Amino acid sequence: MSHDALLWLSFILIGLATTLPRASFIVLGGRVRLPSVVQRALRYAPAAALAAIVAPDVLVVGGDFMPLNPKLAGVVAAVAAALLWRNPWLPFIAGMTVLLGLRAVLGT
C-alpha cells in the first residue's frame, strides 16, 4: 500500500471513529436506553470538560507548573464568592480583584 493511500485510510478510519459514536445517539434516539450508571456519569461530563480546559491555564504559568500563583488565588476567590453568595457578578469581581491585586503587589 502506498504512503498516500495509507494516509487517506488513516483519515477515513479516524473520521469514522469520531463520527460513529456521536451519530449513534442521534440515529438510535429513544430506542436504546443507557444504563442509569452511565446516565449519572454523563451528568458530570460538562464540568469535567470545563475543568480540563481551565486547570492548565490556572496552574501553568510561562510553560512551567506553578501551583501557587495569582491566577489560582483569583479562581479560589471566585469559587468562594460563588459558593457563599448567589450574586452572579460577585465571583467575577472577587476573582479579578484578587488576581489584579496580587499581580500589582507581586509585580507579575
The Rg value, from CA coordinates, equals 22 Å
Query: What is the strand tally?
Result: 2
Percentage of residues in helical conformation? over 70%
- Order of secondary-structure elements: HHHEEHH
Notes on the structure:
The chain has 108 residues and is mainly alpha-helical. It folds into two domains: 1-33; 46-108, no CATH class. Helix content is 74%, strand content 4%. It has helices at 3-28, 36-42, 45-59, 70-84, 90-106; strands spanning 60-61, 64-65. The protein is flat and about 60 Å long. The protein starts with a helix and ends with a helix. The mean pLDDT is 90.
Task: List its traits.
108 residues; mainly alpha; two-stranded antiparallel sheet; 5 helices; 2 strands
Topology:
Blueprint: H1 3-28, H2 36-42, H3 45-59, E1 60-61, E2 64-65, H4 70-84, H5 90-106
Antiparallel strand pairs: 1-2
Helix pairs in contact: 4-5
Please sum up the structure shown:
By secondary structure, this protein is mainly alpha-helical.
